[in-house]
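User: Predict the complex with iron/sulfur cluster.
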Amino acid sequence: MASPGATILEAARSAGITIPTVCYHDHLTANAVCRICVVEWMGSRTLVPACVAKIQPNARIYTDNERVRTARRVILEMLAATVDLSEAPELQTLLAEYGADPHRFGSDAARREHGPVKVDNPFYVRDYDKCILCWRCVQVCAEDVQFTFALGFNGRGFETSIATFFDRPMPETTCVFCGNCVGVCPTGALKGKREYLAAQGAPIGPR
Amino acid sequence: MTYQPVLTARLGKIDPASLQDYEAAGGFQALARAVELGPKAIVELLREAYLLGRGGAAFPAGIKWKAVSEAPAPKYVIANADESEPGTFKDRILMEGDPFALVEAMLIAAFAVGAEQGYIYIRGEYPQAIARVQHAVNTCYNAGYLGRNILGAGFHFDLEVRKGAGAYICGEETALFESIEGKRGFPRLKPPFPTECGLFGRPTVINNVETLLCVLPLVLRGLDWFKSIGPEKSPGPKLYCLSGRVHRPGLVEAPMGTTLRTLIYDYGGGVSGSGELGGVLLGGAAGVFVTPEHLDVSLDFAGLRTIDAVLGSGVVMVFDTSVDMKAVLRRIARFFRHESCGKCYPCQLGTQRQHEIVERLAAGRLRSGDLLALREIGQTMRDASICGLGQTASGAILSAIDRFGFDEHTGRFLRFDSNW
Amino acid sequence: MSTHITPTTCPFCGVGCQIQLHVENNRIMRVTADFTMPPNYGKLCVKGRFGTDFVHHPTRLKKPLIRKDIVPGRPFGKARRARSLAEDYREASWDEALDLVADTLVAIYRESGPDSLGTYCCAKATNEDNYIFQKLFRTLFGTNNIDHCSRLCHAGSVAGLMRTIGSAAMSNSIAEMENLDTFLVTGSNTTENHPVIALSLKKAVARGAKLIVVDPRRIELVEFATLWLQQRPGTDVAVFQAMANVIVSEGLYNAEYIAQHTEGFEEYAASLAPYTPEWAEKVTGVPAAKIRQAARMYAGAKVAALYWGMGISQSTHGADNATALVNLAMLCGHIGKYGGGLNPLRGQNNVQGCSDMGGLPNVLPGYRFVTDAAERSRFEAIWGVTLNPKPGLTAVEMVHAADRGQIRAMYVMGEDPMTSEPNLNHARHALEKLDFLVIQDIFANETALYGHVILPAASFAEKAGTFTNTERRVQRVRPALPPPGEARPDLDILLDLARRLERRLGVYVQPGWNYSGPAAVWAEVGQVAPEFRGITYERLEKHGIQYPCYDENDPGTLYLFADGVPRGKGKFWPLTFQEPVETPDAVYPLNLSTGRVLYHWHGGTLTRRSVLNDIYPEPIVEINPVDAAAIPVATGDLVRIASRRGEVVARVEVTDRSPIGTIFLPFHFVEAAANLLTLDALDPAAKIPDYKNAAVAITPAEEHGWNLVLE
Ligand SMILES: Cc1cc2nc3c(=O)[nH]c(=O)nc-3n(C[C@H](O)[C@H](O)[C@H](O)COP(=O)(O)O)c2cc1C
Ligand code: SF4
Ligand code: SF4
Ligand code: SF4
Ligand code: FES
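Assistant: Here is the predicted structure with iron/sulfur cluster placed in the model:
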């Protein structure tokens, strides 16, 4: 039996039921933005996100019915049609599992493109074509970990992006290069500069 | 038409900058009455009146007030005057023509729930309304209606006018809190609800301007009067924003539950343009289309649910048969694409994909699979989005496709395209 | 390309973050952290996350080096600074190098006795390295001249804590920090020097804890503070004495705790009478009302913690500063409780462990005093040799002794006294009098260039062992890479040398010098110091354990003193306030405070050779806008900073982090070595120099004249 105050996700896990997640991270505040984890709670008008919704006694919850699977599949399809997921193996697996077809929107469907990879500091690079806007980096840079508030948002809707204030280069922000953001980025949008250079085929000297 | 308007009664009859005028026209009598009744009785009155929120979600105001009145201080009251729903203009007219009424209503709300600080959050594109309400607030401070020990009744209330951030989403109550707190206007997850954790994390009553103004006559004239107007399940006066192809568009105050036919033909003087009614968009971009078959349905929150429609913020936008419905849908799709805040995936991505498909629909270049995708995206946004924006972003478009006889093969709306 | 992931411990600061080295083709490509692992639970700072690339730096020492003018069997000259490695050294085999070291040390020892040797063990090396190091010199040579840089950072705290409660370790734990109720941070720029600990402190504030910052500088934590007491530099004791005065005069003290657990209260309470907040306001510049508020906040809390750093310890009144803090904690009974305690934050990755292992002149492993006959004989029984009962010389004293010619040979493992000692010009003259200087290190740092022999060691990423972090947590260090060239782990080098010495000296130590590896050494540590006995390598496989830990079922100790303090009764010490030794005057009108910055670490040996140097490549002096305007200089200008002892050039950053009248200069930069300016006056009790107060003058400079050559 799930402990009181547990989320649906936690309750499901302890019952051995898998609910997929994307934005959720076990050790960070859940912002429930990806909605991959939605489940059907009988009596609720909409689906509810399992990563934040608290379980209640006698709730009837479907974690994997048709309505739920459709929502997950469509979200995954739209995401893969928008973002470069080539370095996000877990998302690739989910796409396959849900039979998602990102090509259904046509080859002319807009992708989120941000221009060249941002290489503006000695430590890490930002390749926002790979960013799924999971919010983790913003969260760790703020109250979850670092209290530095160097990362925020720019634009809105489809054009939302993670950005510094006025898009300044990282060294001109409050960033302290802890790299805790890099540590939680699930897609390779944030990665160490050394790794990035190595992947470019650059000789990796120590410096 | 025996109904006597109450919400709009003073419009055009008083100088909106004059406190004397307002007082002479019955202003601040409701406040005096409220002070006599005491907070508990007002909250009780509101509950029994079953006043439903006029901002769109139709939630009973009494339940919110009661919860906040029982919560620990500090707490806040907020007037939601962001009014960004396309086709809505009622709050602007009320604030421009009768600004003291909003201040008085806020005072009653604050008195009833025990808040000492309030905000009126007004859409940035309403400079006139902002100026008039600000003037009213300043005047009320000078007259002792705001500040410390109001009316000698020992209660304190500070009221601040905030200019909206220029985004549709900032009308969503939790995004509005974020905006007042100086953050980016992202909606919050609910629960927790504003009554428990609202502005600055404190219990908060937030109501639409019209909802608040309904409180004044309710307090003055009493429960029986209120209940005598409109249907039992959603009583009271209602403002309808009548627009589009009617001869006399404008703000209509009528009993809740007036029929579409009465609005269009009695108040609006009938359909203009081709003269033949094509359809009506109820509730604005976030609403749904209805057809001439629905002319006799009662325009109230409960009645519309029976035909899968919504009243929303009271938009009644009339389209004659000559209208280019595909262009209308394209505007709606573009609107949502533009206004999505980008927080949750279904809406952030769905409004883009929906717009792409609707553009193709409008250009007559739909591909096979597009309509299925449109429906699945719509369902996903409705089911899985965080806030009302995403949840309603597909309603108008899908209802048009379903109700106006869209023909997938010809790419035409039978109801509209035949006439042009 | 296959990636191999090795969990290990961060080599930089005393937080002891657990890191995972992702190695591809013998290169560290990425560093991550496990979110389930104490003490950092997935969090890192820039140094741990990105700064470990120093291990790949081309200047790593790869072969033993011997000075070119040394010819076997012939006398050779004194230590002097080499022009460069290439010009003045030749490569040698390990056999040749270690034989030379063994022969020469033995010869000098035979001529001049045990006191002619001076040694520096290493706060960066493992517990096992340091245990063997001190055992080697104590047992084979009978010398107690063993110290390390903790003398230069922590000794003030040690002296203050030992004389009051009898234990110098940080009493409470990192895990408690997020849940604090009230806490006071003083003399610690925690966000830069213990970055990951600072995260927990900030979290505590976000969760509603009250923070009192007592610091002359507007450090980042000030933004999070409920109260900021900005005292004039060097007047810490006055602030704390006045807080104690308030607590006593307003009756806010914990009478029950005082009665049960302390002694000397009456006398101490009486001694506080002159130290009123009004008096303190005059001395410290902190408004009396704020001192009262702070006293009430600290004393009024159900439990409150004290955190401090170098600002308290590195002073000629370091012992008094720490004592004043202990007095406060005892007054309020904020000791021996979750969320309370006395928490000196330790600087280096293993500065705690190095002391624990007996890397100090006066104590054997586990802080058993060399003067304690019973303890000594216990060790003698285990090691099978007679030990020297006389405490040895401390770090700065060894330099003075070298200057006098009393110390003739020095063995320096991984330390860089030529950057970290105060008054460097004097230290250089002293080193130049040495007959023999042995360096064992991974890089040729400034001190190494004076060495006769330089032995190349393996870095943290290339060896096994344990580090002990600031909260007494013993954690594993695991090899992820092979060492470069012929470099060898410190432990290997020391054991090899010990075997060579044993033959030459004819002294045979139990159980010999053929340990199977660090685990066997650690097992012996548990044997000589039972508080480590429950900590085994097997248990450490899962996660670190906080000592004391007496047996394998003991979970370790989250916080100390739940059952009283080691001294039995905590002793209140009446204090008298004294001004810093050197205060600004007409010629040297500014006060210099030295310290560290986020992107560098210690003498800079490692961080200057890592990508960290790219973001902070040159010495920067922080000057308050008022002082800057008076000189006048602006951000980006070069200035010459001169004290009575030396001068350096640094680039200016005008900032109100520095208070008016005080400038701040980090000590990580050899080209502007802050310690050319500092004084070598010592705290009488702790023998720690004052790195936070020196009088300096500033003039604009045209050129910097820096020429950083990394050997
Ligand atoms: C995207 C979005 C925009 C909204 N805009 C407004 C608005 O402009 N004015 C308003 O009163 N309510 C608006 N709402 C509804 C508010 O969230 C909230 O329900 C309302 O302020 C509550 O007041 P009521 O109960 O008096 O209707 C909006 C909701 C959504 C989802
Ligand atoms: S950069 Fe990475 S962590 Fe940040 S929002 Fe994008 S995908 Fe998430
Ligand atoms: S539904 Fe749309 S507007 Fe609402 S939170 Fe999600 S992205 Fe933002
Ligand atoms: S806080 Fe200290 S131990 Fe942790 S990563 Fe930074 S330098 Fe390493
Ligand atoms: S995992 Fe729950 S919303 Fe993303």
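Residues C 10, 12-13, 15-17, 40, 44-45, 47-48, 195-196 surround iron/sulfur cluster (ligand 4) (CB under 6 Å).
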